[in-house]
Amino acid sequence: MENRIEVRKAALEKISERLLQEFDESEPENIPYFIVDFLCKNYGDYLCGFAKIWNGEFDFEQERLAVIDFFRSQLINMQVTADFISAGYDTLESLCTVTPDDLANIEKFSESSWLPGHKIRLQQIFSDIVSRVQQWRDERERALQKPCQHQYTTRMVNMSGTTPKLPVVTGNPSTPYCMSSLSQSIPRY
């Protein structure tokens, strides 16, 4: 019995040492959050599934952001998007299960009253939702592969990590590059 208690004390001391070491390295402001996060990252197997929920929050947030971006690409406003997310359609996979007949239930659940134009647009979107989501994913993937030049840099950055040399961008530093060339062709009133 005594040996068992000493083994537990030694295990607790080992965990405490690791916790203090990481605490000193990161100097967190929110100590309870840090402790829970530490336990979930390092001892998740012993937490009966809690670590999966704790660590999965980031994945869920990314899914919600993808849903928001999808609706934005379909020209649907944030209030309607929030109605879908609050009704539990917070992943692209769950959106693919929605049919035009389900829209009335989502509107009712969210206690909203969508404008007639939004309803018609949503019916169009959800009559072909699977192909629209796939098209959005394909376009997003192509966009991520394209290089992008940041304002006033001579470097081009893309997902492969290569940075080809580009000519220096000229213009007024107070005006964004994309607007400086446009502003010359747009009449001012």
What does the model show?
This protein is mainly alpha-helical. It is built from nine helices and two strands. Helices cover 61% and strands 2% of the residues. It has a domain at 75-146 and 158-163. One of its GO terms (molecular function) is nucleotide binding. InterPro entries: DNA_repair_Rad51/TF_NusA_a-hlx.
Distance between the termini: 88 Å
Strand residues, percent: under 5%
Category from helices, strands and their pairing? mainly alpha
Nearest-angstrom radius of gyration? 25 Å
Contiguous uncertain segments of 5+ residues: 163-189
Name the shape in a single word: elongated
Sheet with most strands: strand arrangement: 1-2
Number of strands: 2
Order of helices and strands: HHHHHHHHEEH
Residues in helix, % = 55-70%
Mean pLDDT rating = 79
How many helices in DSSP terms?
A: 9
Main sheet summary: 2 strands, antiparallel
Gist?
The chain is built from 9 helices and 2 strands; from the N terminus they run H-H-H-H-H-H-H-H-E-E-H.
